[in-house]
Amino acid sequence: MLLPLVLALVVIALVISSETFARSNYRQLGVSSGVVLSFWGISGFLSLYFAGIGSYQSYTDRNAKVSTFLCTLATTRHQIFAAKTIAAVVYILIVLILLAGAYVILLMILPSRPVLLNPSGLLGRMIFTAFWAHLAGYGLGLLLGWNQGRIIPTFGPLLLSIVILCMILIKGFSLSAGVVLMLAAAAALGRAWQKFSTMPLQ
Amino acid sequence: MNIQNKYLIKVLTVGLICLLVFTGVLFWARQFCQFFLISLGGMYFRDNTDKISTMDLLGDYEYDPNLINHSSVWSSVRWRSWLGLGISEEYFVEIMDFSADKNYQRENYEAVFFDRQTGLFIHGNILGYYGRRAAEGKVSQIFAYAGPEGISPQPIEALGRFSESVAGVMREGEDQRTVLLAYDHKQSCIIQIDFNKRTVRKGPKLPANSDHKPVQIGEISKYDSIYIAWLPPTFKAIDPSGTAHPKKLNYENDISSNFYQIRPHFLPVLYANGEIHKLDTEKLEISSRLGHLPGPKSRYDMRQTTVPEDLLDYKIQPLFVKGQYRGLFAAGLSRQGTRLGLAVFDARGRFITGNNTHLGQQVRRQPYGPLFQVLEYLLENLHPPLLSVVSVFTAEIFEVESSYRAMFVMPHSYVAGYGAAKESVYLRVLGILSVMAPALLLGFFLAVQVARDAVLVGFSRSAVWWWMAGTLAFGLVAYITYRLTRPTIRLVTCGNCGNLRRPDQQLCHRCRAGWEATELAVPAWRVFDGAATQA
To answer: What is the pTM for the complete model shown?
Structure first.
């Protein structure tokens, strides 16, 4: 729970500073810029973070043989994978809901609030795109973590989060970006599930 | 789940991830090439833009015996392909409001804008930064609501409602009254709304013609990225000391390019087909033609369009000399942002002259220019051939702005340029094949490699064909996918044909022979119970 709180604080600091340092006539513009740019930056960081989590989970699972142990109990591989994925989805949702809450409250209490409060507007699209970006990051991280070496599980998430961030840069926080990232998330999780369910656990 | 289905899922998921990553990388590589081409081409700098003479516009002035230089005009563009990126679209259009919405007019804090929820124009004071969205949310004081039937301080039903409107604002009289001229598609007429006098006046019905649908009134431009500069003629003037020095027409007193400053009782109207007509602000009638948007040619000089929707940006600028309308300059930027067309029309709307600034020609003059052009072309050929073919058919479907965000298809590619060409089908197909030749050759080469390897690995005949077709269609992406999903099985020698075969399949994929079973030869001798037989 520490991460969403830290990020919420970062958001507050960025948005308030963007309001403080903007000239009086451009404060709304400053706040709006602060909202979009800070969310874009945080989305990039979170994609890296979730890709790192996925990679770390797979890597430690392979080395510490967590799934091997769990499979000796009354648990199937499908259940283990489903539990991992659901936990990741819930974590992503908690982070995003807390972040969105921080933005909404901040924009409501700031005197020079811009017209971005419409949840179905920019903020809604930002959350939608960010959710799929983070899930895609997590799925790709899971895939990379099964790799035998150390270099790919360590640096792969960094490269993939750059790719995801560039995709948001190209498409913006939009429905089309969300759909592309949804496909990426589905492909990555599908492949990770297949790999996990067929690999030898020993 | 059987082995075939598992393999199919593996190929599809890995292929999709490869496609996303690969097209993303290619997109940025092409963007960098574009950036260098545009920087080298210098189309966006005045020094490199061709000037054209406009001597026919001024008549007597140009034949003055003291004339030193004829008048001329040039146009240039600020580079704005970065605006096409999604994140900058959000930032600049949604937040900073550099939108093409011309239904919003503002003078200091006083603004007039169209409220889509009520279907009325609102005249009021707004707070905060410049922008339509801000105006909608931050109106501090509303003076009036205006509909097609009247004007009122309250949004009452009797005002009627606008459906889809296009509006231009002008300032009238010495007191600079705010007067709105709106065209409503449902009403099909020009409506004049005088917010100060509180009057609404309708003009005659316009003929129903989809091509002659007004899309902009008054200030005509899309994004204000085009700059048009007219250089007046220079004259030799002799000062009291007897020395001659050049003298120009004075911009402050003699020349104007602003309809609102001169107030000539007409405003320009841009139609959906690119024609520019004269709107009489007294009679509210659309009368004679002033000109049309120029048609900057697309890549390969194959298609010209004057339709505002198909241009990346456009701008018109009138010329008034000593209060008299002398003509019009119209500039348009092609979809790809590589051609800038400029046209000059006289006061009667006749085309006088024009030019087409060509980025490609300017690039070829620069060092390294051809290198980046070739590099861009090769990068386009690394794109999956199937998506390149799709680009050919979808190049014109995309909105100009969203085409800059296309990752999977390339609406601005060389091959899509041929797709948009107004040539015969035979020539178009020939052109597309020749432009795509490197991609097709690469696809064919990779398909052969994949097929050879697939046979060695032990894929069935149908699987080999699928892989070949996939590699031809998706090129390098399919090849990378194949290498990543290729089965890693140790092959064994077939007892029948002697070639290597897969141990996990029932039949040899080369000779279709099964596994050799140990032959159980029946011995010729038998054991009999001698006593029982005798008995």
So the answer is: 0.75
Q: Note whether A172 contacts B21, CB cutoff 8 Å.
A: no
Structural domain that includes position A116:
32-198
Sheet of strand B226-231: strand arrangement: B52-53, B72-77, B226-231
Q: What is the per-residue DSSP string for B209-227?
A: -GGG-EEEESS-BSSS-EE
Q: Decide if B54 contacts B73 (C-beta within 8 A).
A: yes
Whether residues A122 and B85 touch (CB distance < 8 A) is answered with: no
Helix (H) or strand (E) holding B292: strand B285-292
Regions of chain B with pLDDT less than 50: 45-47, 98-102, 129-137
B90 CB neighbours in chain A (<8 A) are 36, 122, 172-174
Residue B218 in contact with residue B259, Cβ under 8 Å? yes
Question: What's the rounded Cα separation, in Å, for the pair B223 and B153?
Answer: 33
Q: What is d(CA B116, CA B318) in angstroms, rounded to the nearest whole number?
A: 31
Rounded CA-CA distance B162/B113 in Å is: 12
For chain A, say whether B85 makes contact (Cβ under 8 Å).
Answer: yes
The predicted complex's ipTM stands at 0.82
Asked, for residue A21, whether it belongs to a domain, the answer is no
CA B333 to chain centre: 10
Between CA B402 and CA B388 the distance in angstroms is 17
Size of the A and B interface in Cβ pairs below 8 Å? 100
* Residue A9 counted as domain residue: no
Q: What is the pLDDT of residue B46?
A: 47
Quick one: which of B140, B144, B205, B131 has its CA closest to B178?
B144
Residue A131 has pLDDT above 50, yes or no: yes
Pick from B9, B87, B131: CB nearest A169: B87
**How confident is the model over B17-60, as pLDDT tens digits?**
899 889 989 998 888 887 777 666 555 544 455 678 777 777 77
The answer to whether residue A119 sits within a structural domain is: yes
Neighbour tally for A199: CB within 10 Å? 12
**What average pLDDT does range A69-85 have in this prediction?**
82
The H or E element spanning position B467 is helix B461-474
Q: Which of B14, B90, B96 sits opposite A191 (nearest CB)?
A: B14
Total domains in chain A come to: 1
Q: Which residues does chain A have within 8 Å of residue B131's beta carbon, measured at their own beta carbons?
A: 29
How many Å lie between the alpha carbon of A183 and the closest alpha carbon of chain B? 8
How far A168 CA sits from the closest chain B CA (Å)?
Answer: 7
Domain boundaries, chain B: 45-355, 376-438
C-alpha to C-alpha distance for B399 and B335, rounded to whole angstroms: 9
Q: Are A68 and A188 in contact (CB under 8 A)?
A: no
Nearest CB partner across the interface for A172, out of B20, B27, B89: B89
Alpha carbon of A1: minimum distance to chain B alpha carbons (Å): 29
Mean pLDDT of chain A: 79
Quick check: is A6 in a domain?
no
Note the pLDDT of residue B98.
47
Answer whether A112 touches B (CB < 8 Å).
Answer: yes
